[in-house]
Automatic annotation (TrEMBL), chains A, B:
One of its GO terms (molecular function) is hydrolase activity. It comes from Granulicella cerasi. Coiled coil: none annotated. Residues 742-910 form the Gylcosyl hydrolase 115 C-terminal domain. The lineage of its organism: Bacteria, Pseudomonadati, Acidobacteriota, Terriglobia, Terriglobales. This is Glycosyl hydrolase 115 family protein.
């Protein structure tokens, strides 16, 4: 719509240092006036020319801004037939932006921005702001404004439809120490000087809804201008799920007398709540009803359904008496934690109340409306989390939520009718910029970006902030770090999370981080100076700081393992751990010091050394050990797959399809260097080196020359002899396979990414589809459409199938690795069936029993694991069918294993496929 | 018997630089000749004068040495009526030492040393050696010989009785790296130059039996002089429990072909065994029969009773054919691990075979003979451990077996008839000197030292080695370090073993170590130079090195806790951990360097960083963390009993009987010092300081002025305000009690040492008696006599009773802390009964089910814990009766607790007793 060169009948927003004036009726909403001022400044930011706010005689072009039915300017245009309101008028937050010729005397051409309501107009303005080159994050993330000499608006009419979700907003929560200390330093607290920046951000993101900070904060009392300005700007205020009747928890601590207990202190509570409703009656709000215990705790055991229903009835009486009937404020009942249990046991509120369903605090919806509930006029919403303080460990440092996950869960939510409210806990707001905008964008227009284009969304977002030439690169950084962080949050990461002894897992994961850092460093050197701060905040810091934390854990893990092995280099890895710990602190300080401390304190959050759900008071380095290294000459030999002197066993098997490379690590056990020679028992065993000096750590790569290896299984060995004539013999087995099909077992396990199916058979109008880049590894698959009913009959199920070859007969177990979706419908679980060859299919349920312990493990691991016994299987080829029963099941991987369950956190690398 | 001044008719062994000659018939045993030579040298060591080995014309006094029936000298004396053999002749290893006037022409007075057999004579000589001042450990532990100008033997006859246990010896095992490397350096291996030192040591200790080192050692083949000299010296050789037919495991690895499997390789095995019996047929040996798997592993699952009985029958056939019938070598069947299970399932060997019962490798007898088994002519023996390589973690560094434990278990063994063989695994021999001698002394003459005089034994032993003036002090060091080490072996010790948050347990245990070290340091400065090496080996090193390891764990534990608390001093404790790790290495090096490396390698054993049963290849420091300390001013306040900011709770309760002192720790959370003031809510709360500066860590001691405290329970608080005006309020409760009796509950738990009974009622001829200093804390109690039958009827039970007061009503659990005795009789467990007030007594069994897991926990903890539910109890006074059912139960402590199980590893400190 915006052009920098003139086209036929285009509207000139600015050219040659002169900007078109912006005209708003004086009778329009103050919020519209304010947004028009901001828009004028945006034009100036881009072009250097500040539009005037009233027309001059000399103007032939003008921007006409107004709200239908609330602006004499717009209403005149409509009456005169110059502007059509068709498809817009009366629609919540809808609007039209149109270039109109000769709209009124003295104006030759107008850009008309007309909203069906106040926010319709405001959103029209900020949409244009974004289009001319002002990022919604220009203030909050220092994104430079792209300047232009001239700006033109292409002729035409653009209708902005009503958003899919009515109330779309964020919850500033868990806001200490970072946001709190920052706001204190910059504004003297969370007052209106602070909040107007939040309001403006939300409007630029075309959101309309805010739950204010409430950790020892009282929005309405801390600064009386807060609610007044929110309403003026056009922001609908809510209170958090456990703060009923527009009153902050802090207000109760200040004013309340007696207990926060309706059975014993009803009068005081009634007065307290009545004051809240009366105080804010003129303002657009959502009114939380119901009650939790004080301090966001569950109410006492004696709390019960009848009591809560009575509380709600009494609260509605207060609202009916004290609220302004002109301000149609919805009532919200948040079904958080135990409150959802009351609901499931039968507690109900009137049908006009919006039911706010909540995720499990880890981005998994606990419950979505049933078909019956979808008919309730009050509708339903979702309370979601990008930040959480609680079990199993809080996550409040960096973004750990990939938008692939947000899309999958919020798509489900929308399809199941949760479209009245979307509110997301964003912690300190920074550094959650990226997922915040995606969440709000999806809430506004979910059709804009579907599951197959989420990386394009990320690239486009990055291109908007940093220029098209860096969009794809930075997009990859952003999706990369959030995906890798979600595998295990930095807070949950431990030195032993990834396996050091199986599948080189720790090395592989560390290499993934290193690749991201390399890319991030390269981009950093390329970006101009003015982009450096935004880049550091939005991409570089999260990538680099996450990588440093991961590296620190890897270093500590190596220290632990090498110490057990008696390797001298264990002490080196202790030093590395310490230096990475210092680097982490340096990176946080660098963030806090950006632009002369503009974001000072924003990275005060501790993130290292969690040992329970709460954050540690200080960052704690992972504990490291050291070994006593004698002044001797001694070589340590450590074959892959084992650790320690009593664990000698052959190297994991080699086979001619997977064509593995195995390693034999060498390390010093004394202070003095050693040389070694390596010999093999057969000419088909290939070593990366046959001799050498060991001065620290070395590795010999072992592989097989399959052109020389005998057919079938052969035994062999590698012997390492050191310069003191000590010899270590490492046994190995090589399997030169014939007649394999599909995925071929690799050292006792067949590992298949779910998206790598051989066939995909739709049934009952349902089929499995790939969720690209979803989850911890390659991707996921989910059945669509998600509203399709459960298919319990085998012949009605959509199925994917996989072919694989076992290299030996024996008992096998299938481990399915799934997204940790929760059973969000009360009448059934999350089921799928597994059939092998021609055997009867087995039905598996993701959560036969949803215990706290299993849930904690699943959200910690980022995946749910469900095992299906496959019984005795013959060696050779098999076909596995995996079929859909219930919607919402997302499969990521399959691991079919025998006696030894592979020890990798993510599962083994995918098995190789037999060549046809 | 020995005097340094002449008395009437005393025999002059040496005076004025002239020693009495030592005369042995040339027809006596070579071992006697050898011992006489050694004795002569001992006289020289003491006096400087070397006795001649034949009489000179000028001599009027002579030492006449010989074996009855094997010495013309002695036989002549007997024939001539000069020497009586009454009560001696024909008795195994008995002897007489007597001053005889005019024994023969030319000799005016003789000291006659006459044995009933070879070792009877040898032991007579070495007994005298010890008495004149040559410690059995003069060579093996550098104990200085006490010199004298003159030596006289008091006139009289001294009969040395037959030892209680026939074969008494040690097993050199788990002998790498220490003993192996040392012997390699000093002797070029475990050859006869090495072994003769072992033989001599055993004989000086009046032992007769040896199982040789067998980790890649073959006693009979490594040096053919080994068995020959053993027999000459007088040592009976055995082989370890899994090496049948006098053949070492290493010999099989060298000569064996095919599998170590009788079902498939009978001919080869038969030949192998036949060679063993034939080879050693002239030597005194015990012949192990039966079979275990290769490498001391259990035989395959297909092994069964019938097969093993067949093997034994075939082995006995070989012995009957090949052994020399003159050498009456006993056959031994070791009932180790799984072999005991075969026995219990019915496998039997002929009655003349000695059954060698084995402890659990941790000093607890698994099985003792039943009344029926005690009638077997082959008798029974015990294989015991002072060193072990295996589950749950090896212990092969220092002595961790207090002799109180040895006495208790070996007393049981002897009473139950295990008196044919006592063999103890002593690891590298050093530093097990002290328990080795106790074990062998008890085997020889168990009546010499009873349970009430074990500390006197230790003191006397120390006095012999270091002089009477240091006996008690060093005795205390030796019993002290072994007792504290047995609480938790150094290998099993972890930074969190002892509680940092309850009962100041870590501080108290650390103080116990510090007190020992202080004493050890003081003695070290007092001892003359010539005693320094022996003192370092026998007392100083084990005390100091154990204390350093404990301190290191405490430092690491503080580092972990303080890091979690965000205390800056966490970093200091990391430094302390590192410096103690270095000190440990320095102490080992000091041992290895003693006397110019005389014991080089003897302290090569790693002992830090165990993570499985086997020893780590290098010592590994306990992992430590560090915290990121900001440059701020912040005080951390840490009340006793809780850790971390979300665990605030009142201080543990105060009461007027226990009169506790509680602490509030203060620490810096930033780099800058803080000052504080402390205030109390009531005048009866007493603080050790009311203000001060915190520059590192501080503690405020909180106590109650009971003269001012109100009666009953009162609430109060202490408020700490720092110089930045942050205030922390710590709540407390004080209970000013009235009407208490017995032990009074201390903050929710009554803790009673078992020996502190109020009444002790014998019944059925049985009564509980105290085992002084036994176990982990004060002592233990056990019922005696131990052969008394089980008393299942309540009115036939011996009982002890205890009175205690609960300060509140509620459910209580009794935790009994017991020695980890195993159920050593097959027909019953280890039961006792607990009766409270007038309620029916409950019968408890120490091992309702003896699982591997529970056993591992018990031997790791050094105690077995058995809980008895006591149900709902009223506040006020109660009486508990604990009564005996089965012999062998040793009670150490009782902890009666309510909702919170006290977290101390050893249990809380003993509760105070109400004043009458």
């Amino acid at each position: 719509m915006i052009r920098t060169a003139q086209t036929a009948k285009s509207f000139t927003l600015e050219a040659k240092g002169k900007a078109a004036p912006i005209i708003v009726s004086s009778d329009d909403w103050p919020g519209v006036q304010h947004a028009a001022d901001e828009f004028a400044q945006d034009v100036q930011r881009v072009t250097g020319a500040l539009p005037t706010r009233s027309a001059q005689a000399s103007d032939v072009d003008a921007v006409l801004v107004g709200t239908m039915g609330h602006s004499s300017l717009i209403d005149d245009l409509v009456r005169s037939g110059k502007l059509s309101t068709a498809g817009v008028a009366g629609q919540w937050e809808a609007g039209v932006t149109e270039v109109v010729e000769n709209p009124m005397p003295g104006v030759k051409r107008a850009l008309v921005i007309a909203g069906a309501d106040k926010r319709g107009t405001i959103f029209g303005l900020y949409t244009l702001s974004e289009q001319i080159g002002v990022s919604p994050w220009y203030w909050w993330a220092d994104v430079p404004v792209k300047t232009h000499d001239a700006l033109y608006v292409k002729a035409g009419r653009h209708v902005m439809a009503t958003p899919a979700v009515k109330y779309r907003g964020i919850f500033l929560n868990d806001e200490a120490p970072a946001l709190t200390n920052w706001a204190q330093e910059k504004f003297g607290g969370k007052n209106s000087k602070f909040y107007t920046h939040v309001f403006e951000l939300l409007l630029r993101l075309r959101a309309n809804y805010l739950w204010p900070a409430m950790w020892d904060n009282a929005f309405n009392e801390d600064d009386p201008l807060n609610p007044k300005l929110a309403d003026e700007y056009g922001i609908v205020m809510g209170t958090s799920h456990h703060e009923p009747m527009i009153r902050a928890q802090k207000e109760w601590h200040k004013h309340g007398t007696g207990e926060w207990d309706y059975t014993t202190n009803k009068d005081v509570l009634t007065k307290f709540w009545t004051e809240g409703i009366a105080r804010n009656k003129e303002y657009e709000s959502t009114i939380t009803i119901g009650m939790r215990g004080d301090g966001d705790m569950a109410m006492s055991a004696s709390a019960n359904t009848k009591l809560l229903e009575g509380i709600v009835a009494d609260q509605r009486k207060i609202i009916a008496e004290k609220a302004d009937p002109k301000v149609k404020n919805p009532q919200i009942w948040a079904l958080y934690k135990e409150v959802q249990e009351y609901y499931e046991k039968g507690m109900r509120v009137p049908d006009d109340v919006t039911l706010l369903w909540c995720d499990d605090n880890w981005g998994n919806n606990r419950r979505l409306p049933t078909a019956a509930e979808r008919k309730r006029p009050g509708g339903a919403g979702i309370y979601y989390h990008f930040d959480y303080v609680g079990d199993p460990r809080s996550y409040k440092w960096l973004n750990v939520t990939p938008i692939t996950k947000v899309w999958e869960q919020m798509h489900l939510a929308l399809q199941y009718g949760a479209d009245r409210v979307w509110i997301v806990n964003v912690g300190d707001l920074k550094p959650m910029e990226f997922p915040i905008e995606f969440f709000l964008t999806m809430a506004r227009d979910p059709k804009l970006w579907d599951k197959d284009h989420l990386q394009q969304y990320t690239d486009a977002w990055s291109a908007r902030e940093f220029g098209a030439e860096h969009g794809a690169e930075i997009g990859e950084l952003i999706s990369g770090y959030s995906k890798l962080n979600r595998r295990r949050t930095p807070e949950l990461l431990e030195p032993e999370t990834y396996s050091f002894t199986e599948g080189h897992e720790a090395d592989r994961v560390q290499a993934e981080w290193a690749a991201l850092v390399k890319k991030a460093d390269a981009v950093r050197t390329q970006l101009p100076q003015e982009y450096q701060a935004a880049y550091f905040e939005l991409a570089y810091y999260p990538v680099k700081a996450s990588a440093v934390v991961n590296d620190m854990m890897f270093a500590a893990g190596r220290n632990h393992l090498y110490a057990k092995q008696g390797r001298a280099s264990a002490n080196h890895w202790a030093d590395v751990t310490r230096s990475l710990f210092a680097e982490d602190a340096k990176l946080s300080a660098e963030y806090n010091g950006l632009l002369d401390g503009r974001w000072n304190h924003m990275m005060d959050q501790t993130h290292l050394g969690y040992y329970a759900w709460f954050d540690p008071p200080r960052n704690i380095m992972p504990a490291v050990s050291q070994v006593d290294v004698p002044q001797t000459t001694q070589l340590g030999v450590y074959p892959e797959g084992g650790a320690g002197k009593y664990m000698h066993k052959p190297l994991p098997e080699f086979d001619s399809v997977n064509r593995q490379t195995r390693t034999i690590d060498l390390g010093l056990m004394g202070t003095k260097p050693v040389s070694f020679t390596a010999t093999t028992s057969a000419p088909w065993i290939v070593l990366s080196k046959m001799s050498g000096d060991v001065v620290s750590d070395e590795a010999i790569a072992v592989s097989i020359d399959w052109s020389k290896a005998p057919k079938g299984r052969s035994e062999g060995s590698v012997t390492i002899t050191d310069s003191t004539h000590n010899a270590t013999k490492v046994m190995l087995n090589a399997n030169n396979l014939a007649h394999t099909r599909g995925f071929v077992e690799d050292a006792g396990a067949v590992t298949i990414d779910a998206a790598q199916f051989m066939e995909n058979d739709a049934a009952s109008g349902v089929r499995w589809e790939v969720l690209p880049d979803f989850g911890e590894t390659r991707s996921g698959i989910e059945s669509f459409p998600v509203l399709a009913p459960s298919t319990e009959k085998l012949n009605e199920q959509a199925c994917v199938s996989y072919e694989f070859t076992l290299t030996s007969a024996g008992t096998r177990t299938l481990e399915t690795i799934l997204a940790p979706t929760l059973p969000f419908q009360p009448d059934h679980g999350l089921r799928f069936t597994v059939g092998l060859d021609h055997a009867a299919a087995i039905t598996a349920d993701m959560w036969p029993k949803l215990t706290d312990e299993e849930w904690r493990k699943a959200v910690s691991d980022g995946v749910r694991r469900v095992s299906v016994p496959l019984g005795e299987l013959a060696a050779g080829a098999h076909t596995m069918h995996v079929c859909r029963v219930d919607a919402g099941v997302v499969l990521e991987r399959f691991v079919i294993y025998g006696e030894h369950r592979p020890g990798e956190y993510l599962g083994p690398i995918e098995s190789a496929v037999a060549k046809p």
